[in-house]
Design a protein that fits this description.
Length: 896
Amino acid sequence: MAGKWVYRFSEGSEAMRNLLGGKGAGLAEMTRAGLPVPPGFTITTEACHLYVKEGTLPQEVRQQIDTALADLEREEGRLLGAPEHPLLVSVRSGAPISMPGMMDTVLNLGLNDRSVVGLAQETGDWRFAYDCYRRFLQMYASIVMGVNESLFEEVLAQKRAAAGVKTDAELTAEQLADLIEEYKRIVSEETGSEVPQDPYQQLYGAIEAVFRSWNNPRAKAYRAANEIPESLGTAVNVMRMVYGNMGEDSGTGVCFTRDPNTGEKVLYGEFLPNAQGEDVVAGIRTPLPMEEMERRFPEAYQQLCEVAERLERHYRDVQDLEFTVEHNRLYMLQTRSAKRTAFAAVKIALDMVNEGLIDRDTALLRVSPDQIDQLLHRTLDPNAEKKELAKGLPASPGAGSGEVVFDADRAEALAQQGRQVVLVRPETTPDDVHGVIAAQAVLTSRGGMTSHAAVVARGMGKPCVCGAEEIQIDLAERRFTARGVTIAEGDIITIDGTQGCVYLGRVPTVEPTLSHELETFLSWADQRRHLGIHANADTPQDAARARQLGAEGIGLVRTEHMFMAKDRLPAMQEMILANAPAERAEALAKILPMQEEDFYGIFKAMEGLTVTIRLLDPPLHEFLPRREVLVAQIAALEKSGASAEEIRHHRALLAQVDALHENNPMLGFRGSRLGLVYPEITQMQARAIFQAADRLWQEGGRVKLEIMYPLIGYETEFHEMNRIVSQTAEQIFAQTGRRIPYHVGTMIEVPRAAIIADKLAKECDFFSFGTNDLTQMTLGLSRDDAQGRFLGIYLKRELIPADPFISIDQEGVGALVRFAVQQARQVRPEIELGVCGEHGGEKKSIAFFRRVGLDYVSCSPYRVPGARLAAAQAEIQLEQEKGTQEVPPESVMQPA
C-alpha cells in the first residue's frame, strides 16, 4: 500500500487537483506564489477512497498525517491543543469539483478545557477564547458525533435573548462560559459521552467525519443535480487557524473577482467584523458590503484587491475567495472558480475574450447549455399589478412562483407530486440542498449574497432572495408575517431574485428575449459547430419562435397535434366513426383545409429553410375520450333526459373506443400502419402539404420540403407509403402545372429499421432517428410507466448511469444509431441524417450524435439556443480528443 497520502501546501500544485481537491490545489498554488496562506497540509482523495472502502484510516495514512502535523507544529513552534500557546487547526473538505457547503468543516480544533485557558492567557482575551471554544464544541458535536445542531442554536438564541443582545459578538466572556457548560450538557444528554479532550483524537475524528461527509445525503443530491462523478472523493485540508473573531480589528469574508450575478468587473463580496468564516457562508448574520471592509481595514482591503487580480489572471477565470483579517493582517483561506448566474457566465466569457485572458473556444466551454436554457426562462411582467410583501438581497436572478413551504423534505415531496413550491427558511444549511433543487425559488430572512442559499441557488439557476429581514418566520406554526400580512404554508408567493422582491400571489410572466450579449456568444457557437440545429414545431407560432431562437429548419412537424384543437376534434372523431371509405373521405375533407392552413403558416414562417413533416403517428384512440369518461357522460345524459341523438352519438363513440382498444397501443395500430390501412388519411395529409407548398410558391416563397413516414419497420411499408404520397403529389402537380421539389424519408424508431438501414437508405433521401420510441422499443420500457415507477429507484441505486429518456443510452440505443448511420452511409453517402427526439436538445446526447456522424439535431424551440452551444462544445471536445487542437496550458503563478 506504499504511496504518498499527505502533501504539505508547499508540495502541491493546480496540476494535482484530482488528488488534492480544488481547495487543496488552490491553497498549494497560493502558497507557492508567496500569498498570505496559513500553513497546513492536504490528505488526498485517494485516502478518502481507502477510508470509504475500509471504514477506517490505514496505519500508513495515519503515520503520514502524524508526520505532517509534527512538521506543522515545528514550523509554528506550537503543539496541537497544548495547555500553553496551543496550536489550533481547521479541518475542511475539498473535492476536485467545487461543492459549496455540501461537506463538513470543523474549526478551532485543538481546544479543550486546558488549552482554552492557554489561548485566553496568550491573547489576553477571555471572550475571544470562549467564543472559539463554544464554536468548536458545536461544530465537533454536530459533525463528528451527530448531535442535532438546532439544539445548540436554540440555547444560543435563548442566551442572546436573556442578555438582551442581537448578535453573538455582543455576548460577554461570562455568558459564553455559561454557554460552553450548556453545550457540554447537550452533548452528554444526546450521546452519553463528551467531546474528546485529547486534541489528537479530535483531529482524527474530524478527518474521518469529513471523509464520511462525501457520502452524506446532501452531497449525493448535489452531485446528482450537477452531474458530478461519485468516484472523485474529497480531500481533507488541515490548516493553522487564523481568527477573524479577535475583536474589531479582525473579520472574515467571501468575495468574487467579478460580480457573480451580473458579470461586472468589480470586487464583489461581503465581510463580517469580529466573526469566523462559517458566520458568513451559513447566513447566520447578515454581513456588510466590501466597502465597509475598505473603510475599516484599508491596507488589508488593498492587498485583497491585488491578490484577487493576480488569482483571476492566473486561473483565467472568476475566483471565489475566502479570507480572514486577524489584527489587520490578511490571510487567504481559499480560491476556486466561482459559481455564477447564466447571465454573468455569458458576459464574463465575452469580456475575458475581449480582455485577452481566454480564447473563444475556452469561452464557449465556460458556459453550459443548461445556463443558456436558464436565460430563456420567463420573467415577471413589468406591467402586471403586484403587491410587494418584502424586500431583501437579490441573491440569484430570475422569477419563480409557488406554494410556500418551510422545510426541504416537504418541498421535495410536493415537487414530486408536480406542485410548484417556494422554499422559505430563516437561512438554508447544506442539509436543505434537496429542497433547493425541488423548489422554484428560495427565500431566506437572514444571510447575504455569499451565504449558502445564495451560492447554491445561483449555481442551480434558482431565483433567490436572501436577508429579507422584515419577514418574521414562525417555523412551529408554519407561517411568516411581513408588512402586516400573514402567509401560511400552501399560500402562493412570487420571488423576483433579480430585484430582491417578494410578492403576494402568482405574478404574470412574459416571454424572454435574446440579449445582445447572448446573440454574440451564440454567433461564436454557430461559427464553431458542425451539427445543424433544427426545431420540433407544430404550429406557425412555434416555428416563428424557433427561427427567432436560431433554428435552421424544422426537423419535426407532428401533424397529430393539429387535430387536437376543439374546432377540429369533432371532424377527426367523425372520421374515426366512419364505417366506409366514402364516409371517411367526407370527414377528412373537413380537416383538409385546416391542415393546409397550418402547413402554409409553418412554411411561411420557415421560408427558405427545411421543414420536415411527419405524417399521422399516434393510434386513433388518442383522439377519442377515455372509456370511463364516456360511460359517466352517457349515464349523466340518460339521467338528465338528453336527446336520443346525443346519447346515440356518445354510445357510438364508446363502441369505437372499445373497438380500437389495444393492450399495447404504442406497439399497435399507429404510424404508417394506420396510413396504409386507411390510405385516405395519408392522401388527405399529402394533399394538404403540397397545396400549402404550392400557395407559398405562387407568392414567390420557397421551402425545402421533407415528408417523413413514421414507424417504418419493413422496406415494403416505405414503398407503399411513398406510392400513396407520390401519386397524390403528381395529381397536385398536374392540376397546378408546377412541380414542388420534395424529399422523402423515414423515422428510425423501430429497432428493425436501424438493422435494415442499408435497404431503407436505397429509397430514402433522409433518416430522422426518433430516439424517444427507439429507446422504448430497444430497452423494452414504457416511458410514462417506467419514469413514474422504477427508473428513479434504478438511478438512486446507480443501476443505470442516467435516465435513458433524458440522455441517450449510448451503449444500447446508441449502438443501433451508430450501426444505422454506418449502414446508410455505405449505401448512400449523401443521405441526410438527423435526430428528432428530445435527446436532440440534451448536451451529452448531442456530443454523441456528433461523434457518430449525424448532420443535425432537432429539439423543442426553447432548447435551440442551448443545443447551438452544445454542438459547438461537442466540436471543440472532439478536436481535443483527436489532438487536432492544442489545449492552452495553465499559466504558472510566480511568487510575488
